Amino acid sequence: MPELVFFSGTMDCGKSTLALQIEHNRSARGLQGMIFTRDDRAGAGKLSSRLGLVTDAVEAADGFDFYAYLVAHLSKGGRCDYVIADEAQFLAPGQIDQLARVVDDLELDVFAFGITTDFRSKLFPGSQRLVELADRVEVLQVEALCWCGARATHNARTIGGRMVVEGAQVVVGDVNQSQDEIGYEVLCRRHHRRRMTSASARAAALSPDVLPVAAP
């Protein structure tokens, strides 16, 4: 039976790489998939991984209808054996409903990839709807690591290396941005709660206020 599968994890844990691997494995067996993405770091109409792999995709902007698009594609004689939707956290709940309908009515497997929570540890609406509707939710096992070496479980937004907790939910950035730009960093829960990024941890270590005081 076809399934709606949600592959979730923090930033930098290999979601897009897995999406590209699934596409490679299935296309190597003669299957043809349809790839969708939203706000990829490589630009519109691209699905890319931090390993340098990239492929063309259909940009699923606001108001895009997955079900109608695929019905039109199939009605014109096009072929589609499965669907990949990357950056699914940015999709509207109604678009997730459309992906579920693709599974149920068109009988196509849909593999969705996305971050579960935002920089404030709040569920993205698209991810919440995927958790509600997916046949399976798979947490990626390639662990991203916090600067302290612990397993990273939270995404932090940074400006100038410092964590911020206010602002729009969707601001496109990456984990490798310069410290003067809006960027992101993955942290363990403890350091996310303390708002301690790698930059602020280095600053604290260099501060004379935290150095041992010599005995009189």
UniProtKB/TrEMBL annotation:
Broad class of enzyme this protein falls into: transferase
This protein is called what?
Thymidine kinase
The record's section on PANTHER family has: THYMIDINE KINASE (PTHR11441), THYMIDINE KINASE, CYTOSOLIC (PTHR11441:SF0)
The entry sums up its family as follows: Belongs to the thymidine kinase family.
Q: Say which domain of life the source belongs to.
A: Bacteria
Short name of one Pfam family: TK
GO MF annotation, one: thymidine kinase activity
Q: Tell me its EC number(s), please.
A: 2.7.1.21
What are the record keywords, sorted? ATP-binding, DNA synthesis, Kinase, Nucleotide-binding, Transferase
InterPro entries from the xrefs? P-loop_NTPase (IPR027417), Thymidine_kinase (IPR001267)
Give the organism the record lists.
Answer: Streptomyces mauvecolor
